[in-house]
Amino acid sequence: MPSIPSDELAAAIGRDAGHELADAMKRIHHCVDQLTGEQLWWREDESQNSIANLLLHLAGNLRQWIISGLGGVEDTRNRPAEFAERKPIGGDELLRQLDEVVQEAREVLANMTAAEFLRVRKIQGFDVRGSRAMLGTVSHFQGHTQEIIHITRHLLGERYQFYWQPQTPEQGAAE
Question: Structure pTM?
């Protein structure tokens, strides 16, 4: 088997990580589109997060770890503010902000080189290799996406519309 140049592999991994973020965003949009503004800000109690706060948190985390940490843009994150926000920012605005951050992060990831994935840098006070920052951030994004889906299902009950359902036996549908 021929050897693949390391920067070509790095670019493919970065693009694939970006696709994972884009796929998660589709699920987030699907949930937010089913909810009212009041439901976006609903929380079980003050120790829990609303979907709106999670959207702010995802934008802040992605901006800090990928855009700033890997992309070199100045880090201006205010993490406590992501969770403290209580004013009713609309779903369209929250999605617009997060879409912009995801797109910028995808561009950073798509342009990563092998050397950049291997380089250690300080992000959020931690010394991390670029590859670990990318893997941790994408899995963090996916984890909160599942949390958003769970909260949406909790709020809507039987009215929840699934993003995807298997259509064929090969996909897992009943025969």
Answer: 0.93
